[in-house]
Amino acid sequence: MQRSVHLTVLLSVPLALLFLVAMSQPSVLHYGYIGCFVDGDNSNRDLKGLTGLKTIGPFTDKINLAYFFNVATVTIESCSSLCALGRFRYFGLQAQGFCFCGNSYGAYGAAANSDCQELCVGNSSQICGGPNRNSIYKNFYAPETGLFKRVASTKSMLTTAPGQPENSTYRSQEATVAFECLAACRHSPDCLACAFVQSSRMCRLMRFAAVPSEVASEAQWVWVKP
Hints:
- By secondary structure, the protein is mainly β.
- The protein is built from four helices and 17 strands.
- Strands 1-11-17-14-15-13 form a six-stranded antiparallel beta sheet.
- One of its GO terms (cellular component) is plasma membrane.
- It is a single-pass membrane protein.
- Keywords: Glycoprotein, Membrane, Signal, Transmembrane, Transmembrane helix.
């Protein structure tokens, strides 16, 4: 049975009781279409949120040059879900099967609506941008509540691209108990999950609701913001 844990009760509830094994990520209430926009080239994409990643969560195909690509599976819903792992505000679909994430868009200006008319191969009833053109959407999330869910650290893995250090997706600070780690994540807008490493008394504050393999190797459990 899943349970949510509020920071105010963490001090009085034994951590051994806080078992939550279902994966969690920021909850998308709905998404909305914004328009068709020009994209840059591989060296400077408009939406850059996935830069430096190789895989994230259940999306096991290789992420390359800031985008996720799988022409057979990318849809509006799957791109929204992928980008929610980083609580990104915006996502873009391009050329039938490319998915981009970011917290800003429009650096290269708007494009004609007629430039975004390619059908998504993953769902032929949906539009997935066009050549070098993004169909831009906005994710609307449920407000943060101060709740965390405890999940197994291996439930949603993240790997970085070759040449990228794993700690580019998290930062560390000292903590004597797990509660300090949770409090630090709660007050950090860019922290979506955290792990307390008891052996070294270190707190890992993660930018994604997906666990870097390095963190999974040193902590059995992580706490994720819903």
